[in-house]
Design brief:
Distance between the termini: 34 Å
Number of domains: 2
Largest sheet: 7 strands, mixed
Number of strands: 18
CATH class of the largest domain: Alpha Beta
Number of helices: 18
Radius of gyration: 23 Å
CATH superfamily of the largest domain: FAD/NAD(P)-binding domain
Strand order of the largest sheet: 3-2-1-4-18-17-16
CATH topology of the largest domain: FAD/NAD(P)-binding domain
Strand content: 15-25%
Bound molecules: NADP nicotinamide-adenine-dinucleotide phosphate
Structural class: alpha/beta
Length: 464
């Protein structure tokens, strides 16, 4: 028997578990998650209106329901929970799939003004992440504003960054209530966005259109939103030499440029809301107005001929009562694991954790904590496969040489850990369906720790 703990139940953790049980019939896998709910960024990162991507939960569910896989939610690993060293004693191998939980910073004046948020904070709020639940969040957890704190009194929003997260938050600001109410978005966020008076959303990239990181399907979708026009400044396309002749660009960039050229050549957009895609503008400061953010100051940039940009010394200000900084994620260190602060990842060799440059037997990584926050969900499959290949190659040395105790669950319980098991998660799902029905909607997510844990207890015999 090979007992493996996978830390993190997002796509990368589920793909690791799947690959392990498919390839090794003696493998028993516990998938641990800090949250009582599985699926990581598929539940708490994929935008609620992207139902097709969300439906990936069905295939992840099949993994977590496998006979030799067990979901243990509500189990934190690290300084505030089960120490990494203890986990290592309980299992033959531990695979960390903990993602990249923090935001990158801009490091410019005014970044922390009221009204300026990281895109992750906004995404967590409309995705019902329990750490965003404000007053009901447990002590020590940062709470985002309940109610309509993000969009209150905002007419103009600036989204800084030109990646897929920037596209997501731009789209969510522009979506109408009718479309959002069909999603599983929490009721408070739906009510707040329904009351939003944001009419202008500026999504701003510091480099050129041909260097934007978003993918074409996501970009195109902006042009399909009801009552919303999309504007691109032809002068900004003209600044990018690759836009004049995009034929030499890689496929995604070429298609992006084609879509952007189409919008730049169209008449001024109509509709109640306008999305303006801006390029070659580097943020230099957020400017206050009446104690909150009132505008963003940008420096105009120009291509440097090597894929980067240089400042021109010319500046432009864009009005914004709401600023969402969408400049990428970064990994955070987990106590007991090595960490490379420069890349925000755990040093590894084909998924094997390296401690001071030497392979640490039985410790592995996969997903964003291994390769950084890049790629789409499917990129986690080959990444997980590589890690599992390393683990299974090591298995003969890991198993006979090291006796692990029997089932780790009773031991964890004896040490005060109270996991939310699969029955608890199914009870959360039922509670979300009931909540939605009571609101005349489909499934509606529970947004706070208290209600999630209360629902989970109803699925755990003897623990109501
Ligand atoms: P990202 O793709 O890395 O994009 C980050 C953006 O922020 C880039 O435009 C970058 O510009 C810009 N940026 C970085 N530092 C900046 C600074 N100091 N000032 C101004 N701009 C700055 O990150 P992401 O959008 O967070 O997405 C993370 C990953 O999740 C990506 O792989 C993405 O494709 C994926 N994702 C996919 C979907 C989907 O498939 N629907 C949805 C959401 C996320 P430079 O290029 O100039 O550095």
């Amino acid at each position: 028997m090979l007992r493996v703990a996978v830390v993190g139940s997002g796509p990368s953790g589920c793909y690791v578990a799947q690959s392990l049980v498919e390839q090794e019939c003696e493998a028993y896998v516990d998938v641990l998650d800090r949250l009582p709910c599985p699926y990581g960024l598929v539940r708490y990162g994929v935008a609620p209106d992207h139902e097709k991507i969300k439906s990936l939960q069905n295939s992840l569910r099949a993994v977590l329901e496998h006979d030799r896989v067990r979901f243990l939610g509500g189990v934190e690993v690290g300084a505030r929970g089960v120490p990494a060293a203890r986990l290592r004693e309980l299992y033959h191998a531990v695979v960390y799939c903990v993602g990249a939980a923090a935001d990158r910073h801009l490091g410019i004046p005014g970044e922390d003004l009221p009204g300026s948020w990281s895109a992750t904070e906004f995404v967590s709020w409309y995705s019902a992440h329990p750490d965003s639940a404000g007053p009901s969040a447990p002590p020590g957890r940062a709470g985002a504003p309940a109610g309509n704190g993000f969009v209150r009194n905002a007419r103009s929003a600036v989204v800084i960054g030109a990646g897929n997260v920037a596209v997501d938050v731009t789209r969510m600001l522009a979506r109408g209530t009718a479309e959002l109410s069909r999603t599983d978005m929490p009721q408070a966020a739906l009510t707040a966005l329904a009351a939003s008076r944001v009419t202008d959303i500026h999504m701003v990239g510091r480099r050129g259109p041909s260097q934007a990181r978003f993918t074409t399907k996501e970009l195109r979708e902006l042009g399909t939103l009801p009552d919303t026009g999309v504007a691109v400044d032809p002068a900004e396309l003209a600044l990018d030499p690759a836009c004049t002749d995009p034929s030499g660009l890689p496929g995604t960039q070429r298609r992006n440029v084609e879509v952007l050229r189409g919008w730049a050549g169209s008449p001024a957009p109509g509709g109640a809301r306008r999305i303006r895609l801006r390029f070659f503008l580097r943020p230099v400061a957020l400017l206050p107005e009446a104690g909150r953010v009132g505008a963003v100051r940008f420096e105009r940039t120009a291509p440097d001929g090597r894929g980067g940009v240089t400042g021109t010394g010319r500046h432009e200000e864009i009005e914004a009562q709401l600023v969402l900084r969408s400049v990428g994620y970064r990994g955070v260190p987990l106590e007991g694991l090595p960490f490379d602060a420069a890349s925000g990842t755990v040093p590894h060799l084909a998924g094997r954790v390296l401690r001071a440059g030497v392979v640490a037997p039985g410790e592995y990584v996969a997903g964003w904590i291994k390769r950084g926050p890049t790629g789409v969900i499917g990129s986690n499959r080959p990444c997980a496969k590589e890690t599992v290949a390393s683990l299974l190659a090591d298995a003969p040395a890991l198993v006979p040489g090291r006796e692990v105790p029997g089932d780790p669950l009773p031991l964890l319980r004896a040490e005060g850990v109270e996991p939310v098991e699969w029955a608890g998660w199914r009870a959360i799902e039922r509670a979300e369906a009931e909540l939605g029905a009571s609101l005349g909607r489909g499934v509606v997510k529970l947004p706070d720790w208290e209600s999630l844990l209360a629902a989970a207890r109803t699925g755990t015999p003897g623990r109501v």
